[in-house]
Amino acid sequence: MAKVKVEFKVNGREYSREVEAATRLLDLLRNELGLIGTKEGCGKGECGTCTVLMDGKPVNSCLVLAPQANGREILTIEGLSSGDRLHPLQDAFIKKGAVQCGYCTPGILISAYYLLKNNPRPNRDDIKEGISGNLCRCTGYVKIIEAIESVTEGREGHEE
Amino acid sequence: MPGETGFWINGIEKAIPKGETRNLLEFLREEMRLLGCKDGCSEGHCGACTVIVDGKARLACRTMVSELKGARVETIENLAKNGELHPLQVAFSETGAIQCGFCTPGMIMSAKALIDKNPDPSEEQIKKALQGNLCRCTGYIKIVEAVKLGARYIREQREEKEKDIIARVGENIVKNDAVAKARGEPFYVDDLFRENMLYGKLHLSNEPHARLIQVDIEEALQVRGVVRILTAKDIPGRNAFGLKIPHQPVLAGDKVRFTGDPIALVLAESKEAAKEGAEKIKVIYEKLPAYFSPTDSLEEGAEKIHAGGNVLTELKIKKGDPEKAMQEADIVVEGEYTTPFGEHAYLEPDGGLAEYLDGLITVWCPNQGAHQFREMIAASLNLPLEKVRVITTKTGGAFGGREEPTVQIHCALGAMLTGRPVKIILSREETIRMSTKRHAAKMHYRTGVNKEGKIIAGEAKIYSDTGAYASLGEPVALRHTAFAMGPYVVPNVKVQTFSVYTNNTPAGAFRGFGSPQVNFGAELQMDRIARKLNMDPLEFRLKNALEEGEATITGHILGGGVGFKECLKRLKETLQKEKIPQPQIGGKMGIGIAGGYKNVGMGAGLPEKTGSGLQINPDGTLTLFVGCVDSGQGSDTAMAQIASGVLNCFFRDIKVVSADSALTPDVGVTTASRMVFLSGNSVAGCAREFKEKLIGEVAEKKKIEPADLDLKGRDFLKKSTGDRVMTLKELGKLIPNLRHDFVYQPPETHPLSLEDIPEKPIEKGENHLHFAYCFGAQGVIVEVNEGKGKLKVHKVFAAHDVGRQVNPQGVESQIQGGVAMGLGYVLSENYFLKDGFPVQNNLARLKILRARDMPEVVSIIVEDNHPEGPFGAKGMAELPGGPVAPAVVNAIYNITGKIISRLPVQPEDFREKDE
Ligand code: FES
Ligand code: FES
Ligand code: FES
Ligand code: FES
Predict the structure, then answer these.
(1) Are B460 and B553 in a shared domain?
(2) Does B663 fall in a domain?
(3) Do B570 and B687 have their domain in common?
(4) Mean pLDDT of B244-248
């Protein structure tokens, strides 16, 4: 199969890779770049564990072909923290007990990050809607929603 | 008296001499010889003499000693402790903020006064705090920088210190893997890669029931990249697995019994090649009649799915005289209820990775029992147990669905036969198609009560669909039977349960393990009787609730730890205070309730393996070895928490190694809410003995009586003097890797009594089916729009008796997660086959609740300590998913008057029919 060149930015870093045209963005991130924080729960766009931001918009990386990411900027869970400093959302998830098995966590964090970027003061329904593309089988969502709520603007515990 | 005539300097009390006329600067330098305090002007202009008095920066040259009665003075000499500089001192040196140094002590004291109050000051605030301090050398820029850096160091130090906690049972402790998980760091099995690794793909049966005539792999072998294809004849050992009855084929050779039976394993250089190979395999079948319900497979003359027939097990219990009691009852209510199969839908698809090195097979995989997998793998590979090691990777949810292997034996087989690492990750569709399910059940109930509202008789006949293989169908049937009447006193009972083979997906363990099904039947019955009696459903339950001293229907007279009545009472109080919210979907509002109970531990006289180990490492940390699998429920954290509390050492110094068959004890399967009780008790016991051992070592080395020694944090202290005599690290170097193991003996249990049980059992200590039970009562506020056939759950109240909580946040999280699953059970989730294949074959069709569907959940915790649980804890994770289903259905009746008897509820069950 013909190889295609993909040049793109992931978490602020430039990458250039030759991949087969049918390669999914998810596989490129995980298998080629070693960014295993992005998970595959279904491979069909149903679970959201593979959520990343592409040019600032959330996508299911299992449904995006790698060549489609050419020239784009991707944010994965690995890019959410800066070095040892966790993003306030990560802190909140940890403190509020929003992490159980952890398989949904990276995807939900990316969705939540996108939500807050575009709507710094979401209400509960906005938050629920904002993460409804992501399934979690462990937590019942309650603590996840509370964690996101705790870092919305004007709330206690909000940093920055 | 201190304070009246004297003051403190750096914590040391000093009397103020009568008629003292010196200022503090003179006093410090002349009297105390504390020369760090400098005299730059004696006039209050330079700040070189700055000290801290009662938390504020003060100029010593302008402070009269006679005014200092009771004051606390701190000078620069007080900053360095135990030979370690104060972070501000470090920061001043590191940033080059010190030139001639004359201003430095005063500067640092001003800065310290600021930071003590404001740990993260802005540049402005720093400049303001330093405005009284002159510096002629540096131009201040580096000084401001130094203060900022010092403040950061102090903050970091504090954060570090905050991590030094001794965890106690009952406290909220951040889970020990939460940070890594929030960063996306931990390795789940699909995140593991090996050099030279092969990918495996199974060819699954396309027939639900058939004899295999021919398996043709020729064409598949031609696919580029395919390295090898294995079929039944390649299996060196037992071609069968199964926790109870090993009869499920690893690779079917003669017969398939459901469409998840694997027939061939294709090993290839890439996933794509493996997939293509699997598709090219041709199988010729001789079809057999297939059955998808017990009714069909139990028909006269039905084809036998297994040689022994289509009944896996039949259980019968009888207590008192149910026939007679039923006749005497004033009211008898009869009902038939059905519940569907359930898919666990843990979010991480199942899989495994195996490596074969020096005759040793190592398999990395998610699971619920590393040792059980090891046994099954060893049997199929025909290897001795010690040649197989199963290492549990981070497990992305389990809920009972990872008790049986899916592809883990295949990975091991592939690795052994090719000598190359083999990874198999099932697609979501395959995970659903192959993995075990919750049993579907059909239940017939009769319940008799007297006019006073006391239950006097109960009967149930239960058909449980165990699918194509036994898996855990037998113990599940036992739970159906034992819990059939719910947490109530029913003196006369008859329960009969059949667990039946069909060609459905095998059913095994699923959160609740046989109790959610009967919970549904029993709690619907309860409401229906209450209505006939014209009694409040909650009062009716209270009147019949099990309590200490009462017998279950299996004749177990309950000892301590029965918090059911308390759950009901607390639920009642909460519901009474609750205001019913406004409708949101244009319907009518109503409330429903249900109770429930669930065993802790496998019980029934089965051996309960337990155990744990502790080891001291050369770096002073401790390793805790536990057999239980942390699939997200937080057992690693709970266990470390128990160990930390008992040892009195820091939580974060305890590294947990769990479920590695080579390192951790075999503790049986992580199931039945048993790990808090069993592993918890064994960790507590192990920690007690290990602490004694460590103290013994220190005592001997330091020639101190053990009774005079204690461990606190990282230090061994001599109690009589409070002195530190050794650190964990020092001891770790002296006795590196010393390990201690401990096995906990759980309370005895007895098998289910199949003999007749008297109406009022008297003998205590007999028929102890389980060593503990957890209880719960849940209430829901529901809205129904009958016209539109719409239903909305607004709020769930979940009162649970959990014994003592180990980690309250974790307990709450289990309740919320359980309620979400229970809501799925009643509102949307289903699983059945059509033409032998799963209809709900992906996560969308399974209709798992999403965040937008999730109502508010109010957790009400009842802590009825279990006398034998670790610190009174007993385990609780399964029950919360049960009562919510009947509670919702009861609410629908209360709103619409419609009796619904199946799950999940469908719109046509309550929609208004156009006449
Ligand atoms: S893996 Fe992409 S949505 Fe599930
Ligand atoms: S934490 Fe397990 S799926 Fe969300
Ligand atoms: S010596 Fe006190 S301010 Fe100068
Ligand atoms: S360093 Fe010399 S006066 Fe400040």
Answers:
(1) yes
(2) yes
(3) no
(4) 95
In angstroms, what is the span from residue B342 Cα to ligand 3's centroid? 79
For residue B594, list its beta bridge partners.
Answer: B778
The number of distinct structural domains making up chain B is: 4
Q: Do B186 and A102 touch (CB under 8 A)?
A: yes
| B50 to B29, B68, B146, B215: CA distances (angstroms) | 13, 15, 18, 91
Same domain, B451 and B503: yes
Distance of CA B657 to CAs B122, B614, B660, Å?
Answer: 44, 10, 7
| pLDDT for the residue numbered A124 | 93
Residue B640 lies in a domain: yes
Nearest to A101 among B193, B349, B632 (CB): B632
* Residue B135 pLDDT > 50: yes
Q: B709: domain range?
A: 612-742
* Ligand 4 mutation pick, B39, B45, B92, B137, max ligand atoms within 8 A of CB: B137
φ, ψ of residue B180 in degrees (nearest 5): -60, -40
Do B518 and B558 have their domain in common? yes
The verdict on residue B651 lying in a domain is: yes
- Distance of CA B48 from the midpoint of ligand 3 (Å): 5
> In CATH, what number is assigned to the domain containing residue B501?
3.30.365.10
Give tens-digit pLDDT for B640-684. Answer: 988 998 888 988 899 998 888 878 877 666 665 566 777 788 888
Same-domain check for residues B600 and B667: no
The segment(s) of chain A belonging to CATH 3.10.20.30 are 3-79
Which of A101, A148, A160 to probe by mutation at the B interface, max B CB count within 10 Å?
A: A101
**Other CB atoms within 10 A of residue B878 CB:** 27
Q: Are residues B551 and B643 in the same domain?
A: no
Please tell me whether residues B130 and B200 are part of one structural domain: no
Residues of A in contact with B633 (CB under 8 A): 100, 138
Confidence of residue B341 (pLDDT cuts 50, 70, 90): very high
What single DSSP character describes residue B818?
H
For residue B428, the chain A residue with the least C-alpha distance is A42
To test ligand 3's pocket by mutation, which of B28, B35, B37, B42 has the most ligand atoms within 8 angstroms of CB?
B42
Q: Give the mean model confidence (pLDDT) for residues B610-618.
A: 87
Please tell me the residue having the least CA distance from ligand 3 atom 3. B44
Residue B702 CB: number of other CB atoms within 10 A?
Answer: 13
Phi, psi dihedrals of residue B595, rounded to the nearest 5°: -110, -175
Q: What's the rounded mean pLDDT across residues B371-375?
A: 94
Q: Which fold has domain A3-79?
A: Ubiquitin-like (UB roll) (3.10.20)
Q: What's the per-residue H, E or C state across B297-328?
A: HCCCCCCCCCCCCCEEEEEEEEECCHHHHHHH
Average pLDDT over residues A32-56: 96
Minimum-distance CB partner of B396 among A42, A76, A101: A101
Are residues B410 and B490 both part of a single domain? no
Strands of the sheet with B6-9, listed across from one edge: B12-15, B6-9, B72-74, B50-53, B56-59
Binary contact (A137, B345; C-beta < 8 A)? yes
Mean pLDDT of chain B: 90
Contacts of B394 in chain A (CB under 8 A): 101-102
Q: Chain A within 8 Å of B160 (Cβ-Cβ)?
A: no
For residue B185, pLDDT beyond 70: yes
Report the gap between the CA of B852 and the closest CA in chain A (Å). 5
Q: Which contiguous run of DSSP H or E holds residue B141?
A: helix B141-163
As annotated, the residues of chain A forming the CATH 1.10.150.120 domain(s) are: 88-152
Fold held by A88-152: DNA polymerase; domain 1 (1.10.150)
Instruction: Decide which of B434, B458, B482 is a domain's last residue.
Output: B434
Q: What is the CATH number of the domain that holds B202?
A: 3.90.1170.50
What confidence score (pLDDT) does residue A157 get?
42
Whether residue A25 has its Cβ less than 6 Å from ligand 1: no
User: Distance between CA B206 and CA B427 in Å, rounded?
Assistant: 17
The pLDDT score that the predictor gives to residue B741 is: 86
Domain membership flag for residue B170: no
pLDDT(B826) > 60: yes
Residue B399 tokens, joined: 């809920």
